[in-house]
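batch_manifest entry 22 of 60
target: Orotate phosphoribosyltransferase
source organism: Akkermansia glycaniphila
requested by: lab member K.T.
priority: normal
notes from requester: please return tokens only, no post-processing; we will run our own comparison against the previous entry in this batch. if the run fails, retry once and flag.
--- input ---
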Amino acid sequence: MNDAPKQELLDILLAKSIRTGHFVLASGKESDLYCDCRVTALDARGANLIGQVGWELVKKDILAQFPNVSSIGGMTMGADPISLAIGMYSSLDQTCGTTLNVFTVRKEAKDHGRGKRIEGNFESGQEIIVVDDVITTGGSTLKAIDAIEAEGGKVVAALVLVDREEGGREAIEARDIPVFPLFTRQSIFGSR
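--- output ---
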């Protein structure tokens, strides 16, 4: 793959989404790195690049290991624009033969209508890529995995926009689900 789209995506992440300093995270942990990837994922150019770079990663690394993957999604709201962008790119690729269905996982089941926790193009029995924008402890990704598995989905891989490299990858991989990050703390900042 041409590295220019990935570099452009990184440039947008650095300009819009990634900050250094002292932060208290949703997990309660303190960190010197803050990532608000929604700003990039909801940017028109950022979303386009996420779709392009993410779909290339799916084709090259995930489908090579898990050729029966049919759906992509994760916990709302962080995963939603990422899953949709990658799913849209999959539908444009005439060379692969795979178009990913897109779904979202609610934090809680609806208390009205059909009472669903998973919305969109999801069916029990599907092999699935779970998505998250950022992993720190892996907690939100694991909650999404639990919800998907409770509804009969088989999560075979996790795709994340940024792995902060603070233990989340190991927590997810302890469930025998490999993690495929587009970026890691190391790839963003080097060894500093």
